[in-house]
Amino acid sequence: MAKKDVNEMSFLDHLEELRWHLIRIVIAIVVVGTIAFLSSRFIFDEIIFAPLEMTFPTYDFLCKCANFINVDTTFCGDKIPLILQNRTMAGQFSADIWTAILGGFIISFPYVIFELWKFISPAMHAKERKHSRGFIIISSFLFFLGVLFGYYIICPLSINFLANYSISTKVDNQIDISSYIGLVRASVLASGLIFELPIIIYFLTKVGLVTPEFLKKYRKYALVIVLILSAIITPPDIASQIIVAIPILVLYQVSIYISKLVIKGQRKKAKAHV
């Protein structure tokens, strides 16, 4: 059966088309997630639990920096003062399943973007569709960059701070596994999605919801929001908040530049049709 032209498709046809794209996305995530589930021992021991070891690259780097400027820091300790434990019967199995699903989503993210692009691209001009490969590569790069930022920056900073924070020597940090893995998952996924800001601004500018002037006008409010966001996803110390806030502010500035390019391109097209 021949595929209908996008202009001839009804609302229900669009929903049907979207349904099949979503089904293929789910299948991809399940397949990759199954592979991740079968490799769970490696994923947990070598990746998820790695920030619990003081040999983690982030701790090693920050320890060397602290020694260079001659200041005391918890990044140079022997071990993280934290004991993981499981308090529910299905706790470890549940952690394994959800981690596999998240791993499936992260690894198959380029395919997820590809399927979403296939859904929206028929409504775009031929020249815009030519840039699909670049769009998929850039959006995937930004997402993976955000994931790495969350894993190597936000996770170790949060874990080290919260594990060493104590209200009394009478209290030991015996953390439930769901709490620890939840922190890792949230940090990684949130960072990955935040780094998609330039892509989001690109599409918002394309549909006329955002302009460079709007982004510049509300930049000071965006700065406040960024600082609040960094305070939420990081420990409440100034250094960690600055480390997280800087790349987000850079992304915001890049988004303004991208918005300018989109507006410039739209004005050129408008003049060409005059």
Automatic annotation (TrEMBL):
GO terms for cellular component: TAT protein transport complex. Its main location: membrane. InterPro entries: TatC (IPR002033). Keywords: Cell membrane, Membrane, Protein transport, Translocation, Transmembrane, Transmembrane helix, Transport. GO terms for biological process: intracellular protein transmembrane transport; protein transport by the Tat complex. It is found in: Cell membrane; Membrane. One of its GO terms (molecular function) is proton motive force dependent protein transmembrane transporter activity. It comes from the Bacteria. Pfam families: TatC (PF00902). Belongs to the TatC family. NCBIfam families: tatC. Forms a complex with TatA. This is Sec-independent protein translocase protein TatC. The gene is tatC.
